Amino acid sequence: MALKPEDGSFRAIDREEWRQWLSKNHASSAGVWLTIRRKNTQSDGLFLSDAIDEALCFGWIDSKVVPQDQASYKLLFTPRKSRSIWSARNRQRVEELTREGKMTAAGLAKVLEAKRDGSWDMLNDVEELKIPEDLRLALMGDDVARKNFESLSASAKKQVL
């Protein structure tokens, strides 16, 4: 059953409080809607980058966003599922968090699982904009499609790939 924003949420005043919540609940909770402070607001609360970093430390990931008010929004955090794909940014964050000694056993276990099952680097070719052979051949056979593809921004090409 999917968690809904009305099922409840958690508001951490800072990164440490979010980490404490994760430490206590990461193994037993199906997820939580975390209140995130919007940039350029004076309200108390957790910023997005800190929330994501701490979630990664415990093997959790962010997903759905629900607007809340002018100062904040809710973001769904859940335990990372097996075979879920890791973005280059999250892989980089995990490497930094590991160097800083912040990764927990639970977070490191998710990383090891991803490296074993291939989901850790599944997006490498996409990040490098490597065109798969079947797409390359199809584009070579259709000038209009090739020109349209070539005109796309890098981020749009990644969506296609």
Question: What can you tell me about this protein's structure?
Answer:
With 161 residues, the chain is α+β, with helices and mostly antiparallel strands. It folds into 2 domains: 114 residues, no CATH class; 36 residues, no CATH class. A 4-stranded mixed sheet has the order 1-2-4-3, with helices on one face. The model has no long low-confidence stretch (mean pLDDT 91).
Quick overview of this protein structure:
By secondary structure, the chain is an alpha+beta fold.
Which features does this protein show?
about 15% strand, single chain, about 160 residues
- Uncertain stretches of 5 or more adjacent residues: none
Describe the largest sheet.
Answer: 4 strands, mixed
SS-derived structural category: alpha+beta
How many domain units? 2
H and E order: EHEHEEHHHHHH
Radius of gyration using CA atoms only: 19 Å
Distance between the termini: 31 Å
Strand tally is 4
What is the average per-residue confidence, as pLDDT, rounded to a whole number?
Answer: 91
Share of β-strand residues: 5-15%
| Side-by-side strand order of the widest sheet | 1-2-4-3
**Separate helix tally:** 8
Helical content stands at: 40-55%
Reconstruct the topology from this structure.
Blueprint: E1 9-10, H1 15-25, E2 32-37, H2 48-57, E3 60-67, E4 72-79, H3 88-99, H4 105-117, H5 124-127, H6 133-140, H7 143-151, H8 154-160
Helix pairs in contact: 1-2
